[in-house]
Design brief:
With 279 residues, the chain is an alpha+beta fold. It contains seven helices and 13 strands. The chain has helices at residues 5-8, 74-78, 91-101, 131-150, 160-163, 229-233, 246-256; strands at 2-4, 12-15, 18-29, 34-41, 50-53, 67-69, 157-159, 167-170, 173-184, 190-196, 205-208, 213-217, 222-225. Strands 1, 8, 9, 10, 11, 12 and 13 form a seven-stranded mixed beta sheet that branches. Strands 2, 3, 4, 5, 6 and 7 form a six-stranded mixed beta sheet that branches. Helix 3 (91-101) packs antiparallel against helix 4 (131-150). It is globular and about 55 Å long. The relative contact order is 0.12.
C-alpha cells in the first residue's frame, strides 16, 4: 500500500521499552528513490537530540493512533552514533550507524536494500551463520566501506520536507510544484511525486514517477521531468482522500505511455499502450 510522506512524518516512534520521539522528516536516497531513515526528535528525553531510525527496525504502524513501533530499545537509541541531522549525512556516517546496529549496507547490492528488495536485518544463513556466508558478508562490508570513503564528498541523502515546494520543470517550460510523495510502505520506495499544478491554471494534483525525473537542481530547487506541460495538464487527477488502487496506477502509466514499476513482477499486455499524454 502507498502512504503519503506527510502521514509518515506525523508518526510517533515507540521502542520496545517506551517512547522515543516524533518523526520530523524523512531522508531519501536520490539514486534509488527510497526512504532510508526517519529523522526522530527525541524531545526532552534526550535533550531534543535528533536520531535516525532505519526502516529495517520499523514495525507495522498503528495509523489510527499515529504510532510506529520499532525493534529497538531506548538504550540502543541513546547510544547510537550522534549524527548532526542539520548537516549533510555522509556515507561514512551511514557506515558507522549501520555497523552500530549490525544492519546490512543498502548500497552496492543488486536489490533496493542491498541483498533484497525489502528492508531487513541480516538473516540466518547469511552473516555469521557459517564460514562461507560469513566471509562473503565481511567481503561485501569491506567493499561497501571503501565505497563509503570514496563517496563522502557527494551527499546522496535528501530531506523529503525540504523537497516539498520544489518547482517542476518539464520539456517545454515549468508547471507546478512538489506537493508531497507517495511511499510504498513495504519497500519504503518513493513511487510517486505528487505535483500540484494549481498555480499555473485552475489545475489539480497529478502523479509523476521518480523514473521520469531527469535531474534535480538542489540549489535552484527545481525538479526536471521528461514530460510535457500538456501531458501533465491532461494527466489523471490524484485525490489524496481516495486510496490509490492498482487500476488507478495503470491509468496513470497508460496516460504517459510508460511501463509500470510492477512490470518486472508480472507482465500484462494491456500495459503496452501508445503514448496518449505527451505532445
Amino acid at each position: 500500500m502507498l502512504r503519503q510522506s506527510k502521514d509518515l512524518q506525523n508518526l510517533a516512534i515507540s521502542a520496545t521499552d517506551g517512547a522515543i520521539g516524533d518523526v520530523k522528516d524523512l531522508y531519501f536516497d536520490d539514486e534509488a528513490w527510497t526512504i532510508r531513515y526517519l529523522v526522530v526528535d527525541t524531545g526532552s528525553w534526550l535533550a531534543s537530540r535528533k536520531v535516525l531510525i532505519s526502516p529495517i527496525a520499523a514495525g507495522q504502524p498503528d495509523w489510527a493512533a499515529k504510532l510506529m513501533p520499532v525493534s529497538l530499545t531506548r538504550e540502543q537509541v541513546k547510544n547510537s552514533p550522534d549524527i548532526d541531522t542539520d548537516r549533510s549525512v555522509t556515507r561514512q556516517h551511514e557506515t558507522d550507524y549501520l555497523n552500530y546496529y549490525s544492519y546490512p549496507y543498502y548500497w552496492g547490492g543488486m536489490g533496493t536494500w542491498g541483498t533484497g528488495q525489502l528492508p531487513q536485518p541480516y538473516l540466518p544463513g547469511y552473516a555469521g551463520y557459517g564460514s562461507t556466508t560469513a566471509a562473503r558478508a565481511e567481503a561485501d562490508k569491506a567493499q561497501a566501506r571503501t565505497e563509503a570513503r570514496q563517496s563522502d564528498g557527494d551527499p546522496h541523502l535528501r530531506s523529503c520536507k525540504a523537497v516539498v515546494g520544489y518547482h517542476i520543470s518539464v520539456i517545454d517550460g515549468e508547471i507546478g510544484h512538489v506537493q508531497g510523495m507517495l511511499v510504498d510502505e513495504e519497500s519504503w520506495t518513493i513511487r510517486y511525486f505528487v505535483v500540484s499544478t494549481s498555480n499555473w491554471w485552475l489545475g489539480h494534483d497529478v502523479l509523476v514517477a521518480p523514473q521520469w525525473i531527469t535531474g534535480v537542481n538542489w540549489v535552484d530547487q527545481t525538479v526536471s521531468v521528461d514530460l510535457t506541460r500538456d501531458a501533465l495538464k491532461q494527466a489523471p487527477e490524484y485525490d489524496p482522500a481516495v486510496p490509490l488502487t492498482r487500476e488507478m496506477e495503470i491509468a496513470v502509466f497508460q496516460h504517459y505511455g510508460r511501463a509500470g514499476y510492477w512490470s518486472d513482477e508480472t507482465h500484462d499486455p494491456k500495459d503496452d499502450v501508445p503514448n496518449r499524454g505527451e505532445a
